[in-house]
């Protein structure tokens, strides 16, 4: 036998290769996951930086527009002052400033005029007009001390003394027509105007927005907190980075303009024309949260992939081990099969499908045909001449090639000595590696067929006799009125004949049924005889081995088991037959158990439908005793089964018969027999008990069976019988009997 697959010696190398594969795959997955995570982090930070720059550009545009509006307002006031005040009278200048109304503005709060002496006059109608000191403000001080600077200055935010609203002042120097400084004009920008936009941006992005002067103090911030306003961050090194840039950029820091701990990503942009910078900051944690989620997913996927590789590798190794065990089992099975094949008592032969040559035969086949092994192997059946009809062989081979099997086909085989045998052949086609083989099994049924032929001849003779008797009865029927006594005597004679016919059928069926277990016993006995002879020969030659003795004991044990099963079956058949035969041939009345008696009767009837598509089912109650005539009761059941097989299932290959009983009242029992056959029309059912009525006239039917049944039920058993049937719905016979038959009843009555 050829060995395939992975050998045991190769298993350690396979384990090492699988381990290296798992390690390499796991490292590859880990490195790829790490690279993807790093790339994703860089891309996330780059994307967030880009988004931050977009945000600060929008914020810068808003702040620039707001400051430019304030500067334009101051420029209008300055032009009006230059045109309307040829002198430097503070009162006249204040009136010019007050003439400019900014109440309609959403972001400008009030105009102030500051004299060269530092006194401030608020021009807004919402506030009192009394002067206040403003020279302490740094941007005012700068403008009063540097009149040559014509640029607008952004001051520190402060809370208005009138309504506590935070504002950002923007101021510039006023000049007379002679270009002499005549004071400072200032406008307040509502800090809330910045906060409205900054709060939306900060809330939507979980960020902070800061408006920062180049001097390093905070002008505005969102989320708004008063402690941040005017905070001086001039010492922060980030200002140097921001001052050296081209106008915008980004950097990382933990605490630049925020008190919150933790790393933040800052983006900034300087305002064009103003010493102010917009700063946009987001927490690293918030920025990297989507990246962390994706990283978790990637890590889980990598872990799952590695685990999957490990699990698949484990199962692959398990499969390899299982494959090795399967191979070992296969080799053991092949050895067991070959041993069973050679030692089987059934003749077997293995034939190659491609050329028809015999590959192997067992000892039973050699013994049956009388050949030696070397005379058969490598030759075809046609060369050996074992087929009497080669066309029959071709038919069998063609069927196997088409459907892959044949079952119990009757063929004619020729022994080496020329003796002809009738055999039942079964065959199976199967694939053995690259070779297609056919396994044939034979059973010699020559003696069975001879016995069946003899039984058929006897049945034909019996039918002829019955037919002759029927013809005699038909002739005598013309004189029925004159010979009533003779007819009654003839009826008694027919009853006995019917009983003998039933008994003859019973004998034939039991004989056929006994043939199988007896044949098995003969086969096993001859096999054991042959093996005893071989064992004796080996003992006498001093060649007896323990394995040979063990094999003989095993074969003897199996043979003994087969013998006991066969003999037990034969014993049961004989015991049942003896009791039923005695009852049917005797007119004795006795006490008997209903279930046991009917089971024995049905057992003896089994050969009538065995190996056919018909079945008989029993449902009988326990402990129902009758004081009656068991032979007559058995004759009823025999007639029911025979009629069902002969008439009820006419033209059908399958059918079901049922026999059951019910106890009615304390002293009566009802027997029911039903089949699912073709049924009877009303005209047939109404005449079923008439003498000489049959639907099989000229085909072996006498027409007396159901008439005899009727007479037995009424006259012998003291009961009643009825039949229910319709075409296509089967037949149902009901027999109601007393548990104690009438004393005057007799089977011959």
Compile the SSE list and pairings.
Elements: H1 11-84, H2 90-98, E1 108-114, E2 119-122, E3 132-133, H3 138-145, E4 153-154, E5 158-159, E6 166-175, E7 181-190, H4 191-205, E8 207-213, E9 218-222, H5 238-243, E10 248-253, E11 264-270, E12 276-283, H6 284-343, E13 348-352, E14 358-361, H7 363-369, H8 373-376, H9 381-384, H10 390-403, E15 405-414, E16 420-432, E17 435-444, H11 446-477, H12 484-540, H13 546-585, E18 590-593, H14 594-609, E19 613-619, E20 625-628, H15 630-648, E21 654-664, E22 668-675, H16 682-686, H17 705-716, E23 720-725, E24 731-738
Parallel strand pairs: 19-21
Antiparallel strand pairs: 1-2, 1-7, 2-3, 4-6, 5-6, 6-7, 8-9, 8-12, 10-11, 11-12, 13-14, 13-17, 15-16, 16-17, 18-20, 21-22, 22-24, 23-24
What does this entry look like structurally?
- By secondary structure, the chain is of the alpha+beta class.
- The chain folds into three domains: 10-309, Beta-Lactamase; 344-444, 2-Layer Sandwich (Beta-Lactamase), CATH 3.30.450; 453-738, Histidine kinase-like ATPase, C-terminal domain (Heat Shock Protein 90).
- Helices cover 51% and strands 21% of the residues.
- The strands form five sheets. Strands 1, 2, 3, 4, 5, 6 and 7 form a seven-stranded antiparallel beta sheet that branches. A five-stranded antiparallel beta sheet has the order 9-8-12-11-10. Strands 14-13-17-16-15 form a five-stranded antiparallel beta sheet, sandwiched between helices.
- The longest helix has 74 residues, at 11-84.
């Amino acid at each position: 036998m050829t060995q395939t697959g992975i050998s045991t010696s190769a298993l350690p190398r396979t384990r090492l290769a699988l381990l290296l594969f798992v390690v390499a795959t796991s490292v590859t997955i880990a490195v790829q996951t790490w690279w993807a995570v790093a790339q994703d982090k860089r891309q996330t930070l780059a994307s967030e930086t880009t988004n931050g720059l977009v945000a600060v550009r929008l914020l810068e545009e808003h702040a620039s527009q707001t400051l430019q509006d304030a500067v334009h307002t101051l420029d209008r006031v300055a032009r009006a002052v230059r045109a309307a005040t040829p002198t430097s009278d503070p009162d006249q200048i204040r009136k010019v400033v007050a003439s400019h109304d900014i109440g309609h503005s959403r972001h400008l709060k009030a105009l102030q005029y500051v004299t060269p002496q530092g006194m401030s006059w608020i021009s807004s109608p919402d506030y009192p007009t009394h002067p206040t000191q403003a020279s302490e403000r740094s941007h005012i001080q700068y403008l009063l001390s540097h009149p040559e600077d014509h640029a607008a200055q952004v001051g520190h935010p402060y809370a208005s003394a009138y309504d506590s609203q935070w504002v950002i002042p923007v101021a510039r120097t006023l000049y007379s027509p002679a270009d002499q400084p005549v004071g400072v004009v200032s406008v307040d920008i509502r800090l809330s105007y910045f906060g409205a936009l900054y709060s939306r941006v900060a809330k939507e992005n979980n960020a902070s927005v800061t408006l920062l002067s180049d001097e390093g103090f905070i002008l505005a911030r969102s989320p708004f907190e008063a402690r941040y306003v005017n905070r001086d961050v001039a010492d922060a090194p980030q200002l140097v980075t921001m001052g050296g840039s081209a106008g915008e950029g980004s950097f990382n820091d933990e605490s630049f303009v925020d008190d919150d701990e933790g790393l933040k990503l800052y983006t900034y942009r300087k305002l064009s024309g103003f010493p102010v910078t917009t700063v946009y900051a987001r927490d690293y944690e918030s920025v990297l949260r989507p990246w962390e989620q994706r990283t978790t997913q990637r890590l889980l996927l990598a872990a799952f992939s590695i685990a999957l590789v490990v699990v698949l590798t484990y199962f692959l190794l398990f499969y390899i081990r299982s494959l090795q065990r399967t191979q070992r089992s296969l080799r053991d099975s092949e050895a067991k099969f070959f041993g069973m094949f050679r030692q089987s008592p059934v003749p077997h032969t293995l034939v190659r499908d491609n050329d028809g040559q015999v590959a192997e035969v067992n000892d039973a086949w050699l013994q049956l045909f009388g050949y030696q092994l070397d005379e058969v192997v490598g030759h075809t059946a046609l060369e050996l001449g074992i087929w009497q009809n080669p066309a029959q062989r071709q038919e069998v081979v063609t069927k196997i090639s088409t459907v892959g099997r044949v079952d119990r086909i009757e063929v004619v085989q020729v022994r080496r000595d020329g003796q002809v045998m009738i055999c039942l052949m079964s065959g199976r086609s199967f694939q053995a590696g690259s070779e297609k083989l056919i396994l044939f099994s034979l059973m010699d049924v020559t003696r069975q067929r001879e016995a069946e032929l003899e039984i058929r001849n006897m049945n034909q003779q019996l039918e002829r006799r019955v037919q002759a008797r029927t013809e005699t009865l038909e002739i005598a029927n013309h004189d029925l009125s004159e010979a009533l006594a003779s007819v009654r005597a003839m009826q008694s004679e027919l009853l006995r004949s019917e009983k003998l016919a039933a008994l003859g059928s019973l004998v034939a069926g039991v004989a056929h049924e006994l043939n199988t277990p007896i044949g098995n016993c003969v086969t096993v006995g001859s096999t054991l005889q042959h093996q005893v002879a071989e064992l004796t020969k080996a003992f006498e030659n001093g060649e007896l081995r323990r394995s040979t003795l063990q094999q003989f004991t095993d074969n003897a044990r199996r043979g003994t088991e087969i013998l006991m099963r066969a003999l037990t079956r034969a014993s049961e058949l004989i015991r049942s037959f003896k009791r039923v035969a005695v009852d049917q041939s005797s007119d004795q009345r006795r006490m008997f158990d209903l279930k046991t008696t009917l089971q024995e009767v049905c057992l003896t009837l089994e050969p009538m439908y065995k190996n056919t598509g018909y079945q008989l089912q029993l449902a009988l109650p326990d402990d129902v005793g009758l004081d009656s005539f068991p032979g007559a009761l058995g004759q009823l059941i025999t007639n029911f089964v025979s009629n069902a097989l002969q008439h009820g299932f006419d033209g059908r290959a399958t059918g079901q018969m049922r026999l059951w009983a019910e106890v009615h009242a304390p002293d009566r029992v009802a027997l029911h027999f039903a089949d699912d056959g073709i049924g009877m029309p009303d005209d047939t059912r109404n005449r079923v008990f008439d003498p000489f009525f049959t639907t099989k006239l000229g085909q072996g039917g006498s027409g007396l069976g159901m008439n005899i049944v009727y007479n037995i039920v009424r006259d012998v058993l003291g009961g009643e019988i009825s039949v229910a049937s319709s075409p296509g719905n089967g037949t149902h016979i009901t027999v109601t009997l007393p548990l104690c038959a009438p004393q005057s009843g007799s089977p011959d009555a």
